[in-house]
Write a structure and sequence with these properties.
208 residues; 41% helix; 16% strand; globular
């Protein structure tokens, strides 16, 4: 048993940890949301991930994304895999450096128990949400996480399978850049929605 798993026994039962370890999560994007999000869920006992992103780490990413100076110039997905592996060697993390398209989403993320939209570009967000909605029991997206201060973030449940986190308004601009506090807050809210969903599913499974 890993050190992380030993520590998690303080907070979760053996049945909960077993259930969390079987869940598979798909993450579209490895920027400020996706890179931090992978860490948040791995720290909570989720051990199976599929992650897709085409980009490389840039110096401007370091203010809010889970990367370090020696990651600059390297593919983001490979850096996330390395960092998560240091945290929990037993994680099954499938990564691909690719640009997702509507026609490939279903094939790539088939079989996931939850999907997370973690893109910056509004068009990419819409593409992924439309393609992913039929695929998973839970899809979590984000909208409105720019700047500092501003409207408090929240969780909006569009329906039982689709949840959006963020303030729903703030757009990234020169005056409101993406910064660590609000970006990581949104990533944390996404992770919390998925964790709560999985723990409820675990409770349902144990009572049936």
């Amino acid at each position: 048993m890993s050190v992380l798993q030993q520590g998690l026994q303080r907070y979760f039962s053996a049945a909960q940890l077993s259930f969390l370890g079987r869940m598979k999560v798909g993450i579209a994007g490895a920027g400020g949301l996706g890179s931090n999000w992978a860490a948040f869920l791995a720290r909570r006992g989720v051990r199976r991930f599929i992650l897709a992103d085409f980009d490389v780490v840039e110096a401007s990413n370091l203010n809010r994304q889970w990367y370090y100076p020696d990651d600059v110039g390297k593919p983001k997905v490979e850096c996330v895999a390395r960092h998560v592996g240091r945290l929990e060697a037993g994680v099954e993390l499938i990564v691909d450096r690719l640009r997702l398209a509507a026609q490939t989403v279903a094939q790539y993320f088939a079989g996931c128990d939850a999907l997370v939209e973690a893109f910056d570009d509004p068009a990419a967000k819409a593409m992924f949400v439309n393609a992913a909605l039929p695929l998973s029991p839970l899809l979590v997206s984000a909208s409105g996480l720019a700047g500092a201060g501003g409207k408090p973030m929240g969780v909006r449940r569009v329906n039982s399978r689709f949840v959006i986190v963020g303030d729903g308004e703030s757009e990234v601009s020169a005056a409101a850049p993406p910064l660590a506090p609000r970006v990581m807050q949104a990533a944390g809210l996404q992770a919390d929605v998925v964790l709560a969903f999985f723990l409820q599913e675990a409770a349902n499974a144990s009572s049936s």
